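Homework help board

Subject: predicted structure for assignment chain

Our instructor gave us this sequence and asked us to write out the predicted structure in token form, then describe one feature. I got the tokens but I'm not sure how to describe them. Can anyone check?
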Amino acid sequence: MTFDKNINGQANAVSGTAVQDECKLKFLELKAKRNYRFIIFKIDGQEVVVEKLGSPEENYDDFANSLPPDECRYAVFDFDFITNENIQKSKIFFIAWSPESSRVRMKMVYASSKDRFKRELDGIQVELQATEPSEMSFDLIKSRAY
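My token output:
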């Protein structure tokens, strides 16, 4: 295993991809303050950065339509639902979006950085890997929430 140093001096295993502090900060705001419905992250150069913040008013379709059809992304989605016992609940999904049409190198970089990035986001409750929209449909999200 090799280690690279990012600009902040933190060691990152294998992929060498750093996680920008803003990623963790915005995730905490989604989790604790519910400031956002979703966050989309992308790897820019050697670091994971926030690409888009979805307001609390946005819905699942807004989220799904924000993912590029031919590029990989990481995303978190705060899914609100009502249980069979009529209790309001929420689950935070981590989605690794890796469409078949994306470049092989991009898929490899995202795959090798995923677990390390996910560990930075404390509070993920459900993880999905999707290569096409049907693998992260609203119905699938709903079924995984219960």
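Reply (TA_rk): Your tokens look well-formed. For the description, you could write something like this. Residues 16-145 form a domain with the Severin fold (CATH 3.40.20.10). That's the kind of observation they're looking for.
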